[in-house]
Design the sequence.
């Protein structure tokens, strides 16, 4: 490793410091702004990094009392939970079949799923918005529940397939010999062993749906159906008026759930991130 | 085998209906003069031909090219630097290295639309922080000197800064995983042979990291070339359409203006580039890397 003979820890801390500051400062700024009184926010003489007058929860109160923020939060959670659940179930079945069962077209299908995994959402959002209209789901949060699995399933299938392959075949073979069906073997033998893999896939799918933006901003336009990102971005900026305090409060609250989940499941997250990209 | 087909059926149906059909529809729309509410007539490659001559499209294409190359190069360099530092921290079991690793991932995991709103506020010239610091450092005389999102060139720099900020953790964590998988003995042997830090980096780290680096770069190319969120939130393609990427221009043309055929054609312009990347990615996956 470069610098491996640098035995002084201080050098490493000194080297990592600018990165940490650069990467985390926007969050600090977000939080501080969200707690500042408006008078101070727009005071040119104030030192921006800290509070001069006392912090306030005014902006947060505004979010919940004067905007549909709570509704957006609920919508985001509903969409993320449902689309994740749908995608994970579909992906477990497909991933298991691709990992373990030999069938005509299996290999091609694996390739197709990987290719679809690499298709960005911005390539097909225009025709997909037409399909959503045909399905009569236009301008509802259900359009998102239906469309998010298009990018979640290829991703989760791929991840689970790789995971299932690491489980020794003997485990389920004995169950199959004992007269278990493939579905039975999958549910009783494979899934309990594959919990870390399933958890990683679920976690990733949830994060991806929570953070999705382009479908959410394209398919949904009424306030009551919006999710967090589009809600904050489109409704707290009115014409030329920016509600900066409220915008930052919304950004903080919208980020917290994801940050909490990831803090608890960091190791799954990192292993999934590296496996997801490299395998 | 019946069971296998039953297992993959839900995935196949989903992908056929919500990816396959939209893809065909995109091909149809892009070769038609459809507007919202009217499926239009077949016009062959007319939309593409007109796009190429459109100034705003040329600008978006150029922006996408510059945005993608600049941002990916910056992410490789900075991500690599961070990965090396993190590897050092971990190797010496320095306290706090786990916490630091967790913290630096934040820009990557937090919803981009929301973190970009924070950047939009930071770029605000009068009341926010970036220009305040620049004035205090003496880099500019007045906060009004740099209108980050109001001036075309600065706005283009701004969207790239945000993209790089968001992408560094992805590169760093993946490259770190690659670094940690390189056997220690190689470095030890090289060290005994008298190789210095830089020689070791060029002759051991770089070649052995190549497969990981290639995968991460290809992935990032796909994500960066097709980016939408940052530009949409930060500038909406402005000022005067100067920061549009293909995706944001497609959104504006296809759904805001309602020229859905031309919007679809704009989006599909990404396809040839993406296909090249996907081809390399798939080839990379098949290859066995041997150390």
Sequence:
């Amino acid at each position: 490793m470069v610098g491996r003979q640098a035995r002084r820890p201080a050098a490493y801390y000194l080297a990592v410091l600018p990165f940490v500051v650069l990467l985390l400062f926007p969050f600090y700024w977000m939080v501080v702004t969200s707690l500042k009184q408006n008078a101070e926010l727009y005071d040119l003489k104030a030192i921006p990094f800290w509070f001069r007058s006392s912090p306030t929860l005014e902006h947060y109160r505004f979010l919940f009392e004067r905007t549909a923020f709570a509704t957006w939060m609920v919508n985001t959670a509903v969409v993320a939970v449902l689309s994740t659940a749908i995608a994970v179930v579909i992906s477990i079945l497909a991933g298991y079949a691709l990992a373990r069962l030999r069938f005509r077209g299996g290999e091609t299908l694996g390739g197709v799923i990987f290719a679809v995994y690499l298709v960005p959402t911005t390539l097909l959002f225009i025709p997909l918005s037409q399909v959503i209209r045909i399905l009569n789901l236009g301008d509802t949060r259900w359009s998102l529940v239906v469309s998010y699995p298009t990018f979640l399933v290829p991703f989760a299938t791929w991840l689970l397939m790789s995971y299932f392959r690491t489980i020794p075949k003997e485990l389920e073979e004995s169950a199959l010999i004992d007269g278990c069906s493939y579905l039975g073997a999958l549910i009783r033998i494979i899934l309990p062993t594959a919990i870390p893999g399933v958890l990683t896939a679920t976690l990733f799918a949830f994060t991806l749906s929570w953070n999705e933006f382009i479908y959410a901003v394209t398919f949904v336009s009424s306030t009551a159906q919006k999710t967090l990102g589009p809600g904050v971005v489109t409704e707290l900026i009115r014409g030329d008026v920016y509600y900066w305090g409220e915008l930052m409060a919304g950004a903080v609250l919208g980020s917290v759930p994801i940050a909490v989940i990831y803090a608890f499941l960091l190791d799954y997250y990192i292993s999934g991130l590296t496996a997801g990209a490299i395998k | 085998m019946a069971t296998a087909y039953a297992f993959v059926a839900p995935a196949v149906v989903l992908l056929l209906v919500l990816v396959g059909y939209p893809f065909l529809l995109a091909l149809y729309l892009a070769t038609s003069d459809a507007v919202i509410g009217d499926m239009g007539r077949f016009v062959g490659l007319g939309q593409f031909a007109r796009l190429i001559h459109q100034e705003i499209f040329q600008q978006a294409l150029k922006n996408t090219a510059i945005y993608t190359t600049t941002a990916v190069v910056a992410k490789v360099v900075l991500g690599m630097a961070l990965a090396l530092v993190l590897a050092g921290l971990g190797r010496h079991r320095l306290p706090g290295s786990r916490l630091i690793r967790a913290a630096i991932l934040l820009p990557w995991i937090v919803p981009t639309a929301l973190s970009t709103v924070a950047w939009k506020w930071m770029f605000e010239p009068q009341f926010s922080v970036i220009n305040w610091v620049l004035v205090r450092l003496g880099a500019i005389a007045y906060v009004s000197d740099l209108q980050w999102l109001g001036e075309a060139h600065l706005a283009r720099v701004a969207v790239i800064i945000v993209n790089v900020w968001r992408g560094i953790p992805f590169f760093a964590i993946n490259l770190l995983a690659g670094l940690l998988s390189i056997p220690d003995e190689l470095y030890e042997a090289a060290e005994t042979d008298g190789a210095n830090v830089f020689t070791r980096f060029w002759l051991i780290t770089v070649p052995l990291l190549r497969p990981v680096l290639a995968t991460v770069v290809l992935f990032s190319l796909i994500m960066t070339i097709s980016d939408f969120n940052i530009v949409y939130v930060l500038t909406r393609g402005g000022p005067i359409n100067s920061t549009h990427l293909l995706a944001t221009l497609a959104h504006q043309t296809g759904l805001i203006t309602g020229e859905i055929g031309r919007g679809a054609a704009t989006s599909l312009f990404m396809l040839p580039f993406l296909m090249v990347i996907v081809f390399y990615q798939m080839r990379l996956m098949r290859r066995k890397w041997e150390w």
User: Anything to note?
Assistant: Chain B is about 75% helix and 0% strand. Chain B has a mean pLDDT of 93. The CA atoms of residues 171 and 216 of chain B lie 7 Å apart.
